[in-house]
Amino acid sequence: MATIAAVLEGDRRAIARAITRVENDPAAAAAIIGGVHAAGGGALLVGVTGSPGVGKSSLVDRMTAAWRARGRRVAVLAVDPSSPFTGGAVLGDRVRMQNHAGDEGVFVRSMATRGKLGGLARATCDAAVVLDAAGFDVVVIETVGVGQAEVEIFRAADVTTVVTMPGTGDGVQAIKAGVMEIADLFVVNKADLAGAGRAATEIEAALSLAELPPEAWRPPVLQTTATRNEGVGEVLDTIDRFREHDDAGTTERRRERAAARVRQILADRVVAGVEASGGIDRAVDAITDGTLDPYAASETLLRDRSNREGG
Ligand SMILES: Nc1nc2c(ncn2[C@@H]2O[C@H](COP(=O)(O)OP(=O)(O)O)[C@@H](O)[C@H]2O)c(=O)[nH]1
Ligand SMILES: [Mg+2]
Question: Has residue 21 been placed in a domain?
Answer without folding.
Answer: no
